[in-house]
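[Solved] Which block belongs to which protein?

Original post:
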Amino acid sequence: MGLAWKWCVGILVVALCVSGCDRQSLPQKPVFHPQPVSWGACDGNLSFDGELGSAWSATEKGREDFHRRFTIAFSVVRVPVDYDRPEGEKIGLTLVRVRSRKAHDSLGPLLISPGGPGDSGLWEAGFAAWAAPEQVSERFDYIGFDQRGVGCSGQVSCWERGAQRRIDLPADLREPGAVGEAAKVWRAVNERCARQLGARLGHYSTYEAAQDMESIRVALGAERITYLGYSYGAFLGAVYAHLHPRSLRAAVLDSPIDNTRPMTEFWEETARARDEGFSEFLDWAGQRKELGLPVDARTRLADLADRGARLGLRVPAFYDKLNLRSHWPQLVKDLRDLLGQTTDPQPAQWYEPDVVGESRHVIGCDDQAPGSRLDEGKAAEFAEAWPERYPLLGTNVLNWNQPALLECAGWPEPAHPATPGMMDATGSPPILVVSGLHDPNTAHRLAGPFTTALRTGFLLSTEHPGHAQYLNQEKADGCLNTAVEDYLVAGKLPAPGTTCPADE
């Protein structure tokens, strides 16, 4: 999962302008030398996004403060579609550089990925620079980029347009024949993607995106880079550390996912983490009587989720608001409103995704080898077990989650899928992994194995709830942010086993 995003068309519009596998098992790539970066002014309108509710966002004061403190420049780096054939077709990667007007004692570029996959990294560079303390932001050039297939870097477009964009999926995978019908629908979507994308189809994986990061480093003329990646962006950073360990100065991998794990494990942990996260939220709300959440909210919500799925109704996907503690009071209000309705939610007989969903679909399927995908039998097993095992959000993840359980059915063999051993960062400097004990999207219980797989990883945990911790969580500017910043600037790691309190 990722953070707030914007994408552009034509002009840059930014929110500021292992079994049997080891390091040698990956093919050695020829070195690609892109043209050096040529920075220019933003040829477009500047806008500020208010989705995170930050003071920098859609206020005149925020805009003035940002421009007073930072300069903005952008560029495009052209890279091979296929690194096995670097002389072939190219794709342009759009970059933005955010630099403090008081920059000094530079530590070089800090590349940022908000995750997704599919979220734009252009916005994230501005937010990270603005939110960091000056003793950090004055030391780095914050480099945001849209990875290939996203936004300004060749947004993938292989689904139907207009009304035909709707993907008609069964409302409830528990119904007889629904799993097979869903797989059939996704096979048809993927056949269209194969026709539309042609030879590019298998070249949107994390492996290619990590090679693109190395091309960006070379184009920047930097000996080494610092990296900050959230959620899927943490996995991207791990793969980069595996492929180019000596190109890293430091890396913070926040709220990581691991696409090398079988999809059966990924989906089981997703459903479990979201149900646990929502349960913890209800406990929090129940302890605050002034918020007015009904005492029987847990039972009524579980019933509504089950009834909604069986009636073909879409119960709102509340888990997104679980990611930020600052959104929890509004989530209580939303739930009060929902439970106060005298009629059921409106029917939704189709799934109509946005461009982020389209990118996520293509990148996600290019990361999955056919043997690691979720098959129809396992999807049917989940459909039977999850509503009872995860009564709060099990049916939501089952029926309305994006990416979908069977979305890679019939997807052709990708060029470089994610495989075990693809995160072994032997030879890199120490890498800091950040994980919340109560993360509703990427379970903390998987952060330990993720850290171990790096071989150079160090785990920093936090009791603060939510997803994507550094700079994003209200009242988290004590232990956690300080520990991350000490590492980014001075390379100082927290003591082994450190768990930061919730700071409230």
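(Second protein starts here: sequence line, then its structure tokens.)
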Amino acid sequence: MTKEEIMEAVENAEAIDSREIEGRHYDLYTIKADGNEISVIDNYDYGKERFTYVMGDCTQVLKNLDAVENGTAELHEVAEIY
């Protein structure tokens, strides 16, 4: 799956969890990628650069953004992986 396909899937999905973390807005999505479910974390604020992340361990699917908020989630930008 390409970065563009991941971004398109996120645009067409409903967020599982959304919250403000350190002044930025985060949305969590679970999408199908290459036959597996993966967590995608979209980080954006209007007027600021948008970052989209996947888990370092793509087998781990998040139920909420707790691991992102407390800093225990190993995140990689989609551009680094796909």
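Accepted answer:
You had them paired correctly. Confirming on the second one: Residues 17 and 28 are 5 Å apart (CA to CA).
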